[in-house]
Write a structure and sequence with these properties.
Blueprint: H1 3-33, H2 40-44, H3 55-61, H4 64-95, H5 103-115, H6 118-128, H7 135-141, H8 154-182, H9 186-194, H10 199-210, H11 212-227, H12 231-236, H13 248-258, H14 262-289
Helix pairs in contact: 1-14, 3-14, 4-8, 4-11, 4-13, 5-8, 8-11, 11-14, 13-14
């Protein structure tokens, strides 16, 4: 074995072991638990553990709350992913503009929400959106709009929660888009201007194709993140009102750590893992088809 090979193994082995222990082993463990009735009684005595096969999955299919959580999660992803990516791209284009001054300061301020503590900012936004004493309703009252129960009304709970999620998460994609925009050759814009292309035409035919890989990366990460929403509804709405913000992750947490039905929770985790894997593969195929890779 050559010295270069030994060095490569020495550098990659810790990453391999860490990935194995943190990702592979728990995934296999969740898969095994999902075909058992592992609960609080099995925690006390493993002799109470029974193999149930696909029983947990069948039970999930019969559980209305699970399908409600799937619908809520799909709705949040359908609205939140385009909103997060669109907001990030618009802000990146504005920050990348030639006339903007103090660009590093703007980048820092706009990226700051992403690195702040999620629970702390969720609590702050909970007070901002409060129906009686919230700053948002106070601002609306100044222009004659009556107060809205943002987090207490099933019709507004998801939009209100998504406003916070998009505000919290758009900074990461913004930096990705800024880096991608910096690599677009200016000669392409000059050639487009000489051909008579307007602002929208340059954006459509020059900017978007050039930042295609960054868009694909943002889409993959955003879909995965929105399918795993948990902390925001847990802190801001506790899954309410009327279960309108119960997500798949929230349902899994409730099954596993409220009712100690760990077999059922593991089945939810397996289904969520497969859904993310399937959507990621689909996005990768679409990216290749449209030459985004």
């Amino acid at each position: 074995m050559s010295r270069q090979t030994r060095a490569g193994i020495a550098f990659t082995l810790p990453i391999f072991v860490g990935t194995l222990l943190v990702l592979v082993v728990p995934t296999i463990g969740a898969l095994l638990l999902s075909v058992t009735d592992f609960d609080i009684y099995a925690l006390a005595d493993l002799h109470d553990l029974r193999f149930v096969g696909v029983g947990n999955y069948v039970e999930l299919a019969r559980t209305p709350l699970f399908w409600r959580a799937v619908g809520n999660t799909a709705l949040m992803a359908a609205i939140g992913v385009p909103a997060a990516i669109g907001t990030s791209l618009v802000v990146a284009l504005l920050v990348n503009g030639a006339t903007l001054r103090w660009k590093p300061v703007w980048r820092l301020l706009l990226f700051a929400p992403y690195v702040t503590t999620l629970v702390a900012t969720a609590l702050v936004w909970r007070y901002v959106l409060d129906a009686r004493t919230g700053l948002l309703n106070y601002a609306l009252s100044l222009i004659g709009i009556p107060p809205v129960d943002w987090l207490g009304d099933p019709r507004t709970s998801i939009p209100a929660t998504l406003i916070f999620i998009v505000w919290k998460a758009f900074g990461y994609n913004m930096l990705v888009f800024i880096a991608a925009l910096a690599t677009v050759p200016q000669d392409l814009y000059e050639a487009a201007r000489l051909d008579g292309a307007g602002t929208w035409a340059r954006f459509r035919h020059v900017t978007l194709p050039a930042i295609g890989p960054a868009l694909l990366l943002a889409a993959v990460l955003s879909v995965a993140n929105f399918l795993q929403i948990f902390t925001e509804p847990y802190v801001m709405t506790h899954g309410g009102p009327a279960q309108s913000t119960v997500t798949v992750m929230y349902f899994m947490f409730d099954q596993g750590f409220t009712w100690w039905n760990l077999g059922m929770a593991s089945a939810v985790a397996v289904l969520l893992f497969l859904a993310i894997l399937l959507l990621t593969g689909l996005q990768a195929r679409l990216g290749k088809r449209y030459e985004w890779l």
